[in-house]
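Is this the right way to post structure tokens for a design question? Let me know if I should format differently. Anyway, here goes:
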């Protein structure tokens, strides 16, 4: 099943409102390529019948910025995670909450099924047994300045 994908302004607005900071995303086709998001994390999107509809995934900078930003962690600690190449469990868990809020943009688009997100997990685990993650039926990539650098986010359809 395919669904309508939000424009960058819709996603930026939701993230700014949630995090209380300026995040301005732009369309970026290259961000929709899963390989460009490694190391990455994301959440499956499921409909009201528990069918997998797609996923929202983010690279390291976006994961740390969005998850850590929601937790209001110090920027220095977020920069350390990026420098070390690994998001903390707290940041990944909080990313799942951010993605849940991001589903609002999908649910508001006419014709889309109602979706909710599952807890965030590493991209390698999310991709396992789901060939559609590498070859989605629909995709939109976004990139922009985050709290600790330029980050990338992608919405992929199953």
């Amino acid at each position: 099943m395919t669904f309508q994908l939000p424009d960058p302004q819709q996603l930026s607005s939701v993230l700014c409102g949630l995090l209380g900071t300026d995040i301005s995303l732009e369309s970026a086709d290259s961000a929709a390529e899963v390989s460009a998001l490694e190391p990455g994390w994301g959440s499956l999107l499921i409909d009201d019948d528990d069918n997998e509809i797609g996923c929202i995934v983010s690279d390291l900078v976006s994961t740390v910025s969005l998850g850590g930003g929601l937790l209001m962690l110090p920027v220095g600690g977020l920069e350390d995670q990026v420098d070390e190449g690994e998001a903390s469990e707290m940041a990944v868990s909080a990313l799942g909450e951010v993605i849940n809020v991001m589903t609002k943009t999908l649910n508001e688009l006419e014709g889309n099924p109602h979706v909710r997100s599952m807890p965030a997990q590493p991209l390698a685990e999310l991709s396992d047994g789901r060939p559609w993650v590498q070859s989605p039926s629909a995709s939109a990539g976004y990139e922009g300045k985050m709290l600790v650098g330029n980050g990338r986010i992608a919405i992929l359809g199953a």
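Format looks fine. Someone answered above. Worth noting: The domain at 8-157 is CATH 3.40.1550.10 (Chemotaxis protein chec). The chain has a mean pLDDT of 94.
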